[in-house]
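Async update (no meeting this week)

Hi team, since we skipped the sync, here's where things stand on the single-chain job. The sequence we agreed to prioritize is pasted below, unchanged from the tracker. I ran it this morning and attached the output directly underneath so nobody has to dig for it. Comments welcome in thread, and please keep replies under the output.
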Amino acid sequence: MAIGTTSCAVWPFHKKKATPAPPPAPAPAAPAVRPKPREVTIPAPPDIAAKEPDLHQAGPSLPAEPLPPAPRRTPKKVRTHEDADATPTAPEPEPPAAVPLPQFEQVLTPEQTKAYNEEIERNIADAQRAVAMVENRRLNGEQTTYLARVRAFIDQANEARKADLFRARNLSERARVLAEDLLKSVQ
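Output:
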């Protein structure tokens, strides 16, 4: 009886899985009927008679004065031995020099100028101090290249200081940063 009770107690709790119903059969397809294209009538364009242009009538399309002749370009003559004995011709006039474009400058107040000069001095001094510490050491190829770049930036900053403080400040800052990196790589 123990076997029967346990199975009876479990039996009502088991549910059969429902099997899905098969999909409905597709309805037979009716032949597709295309609608007939509509016929549209377009009216014919109006008849316009072509006219000959009146060339005797002065209008905006004809210039009042004849155009000047196009400039002629003569090809350069190749010198031969016979030409060597001939008298030399006058040299061609040189084209006018190109007008230089105006350069834009940054306008600085006296306080800004003083601050830029102090920063340039500080950066160059730091870079030169690092160069002095590195000069007597044995350097590899990359470090030697860095040292040359630092010196070039210092020279460029001193030169640019005469005309452009902003550029001089940037160059001096590059020199200082590169010199610090060089000093760190040597230590």
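Quick observations from my side:
The chain has a mean pLDDT of 76.
The radius of gyration is 47 Å.
Reply here if anything looks off.
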